[in-house]
Protein 1
Amino acid sequence: QVQFVESGGGLVQPGGSLRLSCVASRSIFSGYAMAWYRQAPGKQRELVASINMRDDTIYEYFVKGRFIISRDNAKNTVYLQMNDLQPEDTALYYCNRVVAVQGWGQGTQVTVSS
């Protein structure tokens, strides 16, 4: 059973923007705080940003002021607007609950390069 479907990644130049989307199954999404994670080559997966049911958001220091997380509860979808992208943002991006559940999606690749 597919629980997360991430999309919106791509190749972008430094300073560019992308908007990621993640559609989750209703049982996974509804009523839970959601998050975006990323995993760069050779590194562990790390939390990027999270959003709860009241739309309170938390950002890791390395994306604060550049990324914006949002959610559409009617569509079981969480978004990540990424601005001023830098080469160090290159990674495979995933969504999951804040308290992650098994069954990660395939992620969406973001590559920042000139």
Protein 2
Amino acid sequence: QVQLAESGGGLVQAGDSLKLSCAASGRTFSAYGMGWFRQVPGKDREFVAAITKSGDTTYYADSVKGRFTISRDNAQNTVWLQMNSLKPEDSAVYSCAATPFSNDNYFLRSHRYYDYWGQGTQVTVSS
């Protein structure tokens, strides 16, 4: 079991920045690839960013590339999502997740291959 807890969401204006945190506990954090996904009511869960277990490779959705940065510290059992130049269309519930498929781009981008999820944190960007 891996328990995940997100924090850092909130209400901001377009152009602002937010940094989301995801604290993990339980099984060895460094054994899991980590991802951030977001969802708005009525829409499918959307991939945002992922990072391999060692942190040496990151992947991003085209919609956030160049604005968002995912990072992790295995010593702190934490993964972050730095979000810059936020847009109203970035508004969603953001969730972090852990997958044993650590080093494969295909698996890291699909929510179907993640075993553990946090409860989510709301991000609202006003125009």
Protein 3
Amino acid sequence: QLQYVASGGGLVQPGGSLRLSCTASGRNLDGYAIGWFRQAPGKEREGVSCISSSGDSAYYRDSVKGRFTISRDNAKNTVYLQMNSLTPNDTAVYYCVGRHTVLINSVQHMCAQGIGYFRSWGPGTPVTVSS
């Protein structure tokens, strides 16, 4: 069964950095737009950043602009989320998920979708920002 696997989370102090990685078991990510979503305790899952299949288009939610950078290395079948200047408000479980490029409107539209828009989710990786 297809599963998107997020890794790289952990405990970090405010102002610190983490780099998350996303791979897909049993699937080549070529041709797939990939998104990073997060869910904090008691809150809905929200889109953080999404990147097109070619990597030439990316979207960021306002609260992470200038701090987070999404990138992909198709040769390594991996998508990254570099997170800098982390704050306690970034504390959440972070998930990555994909959708074939022909099935999306835009990366911004993809990042605005809910859980049911995607066929499968992996377990996510927890990020805790605390002193």
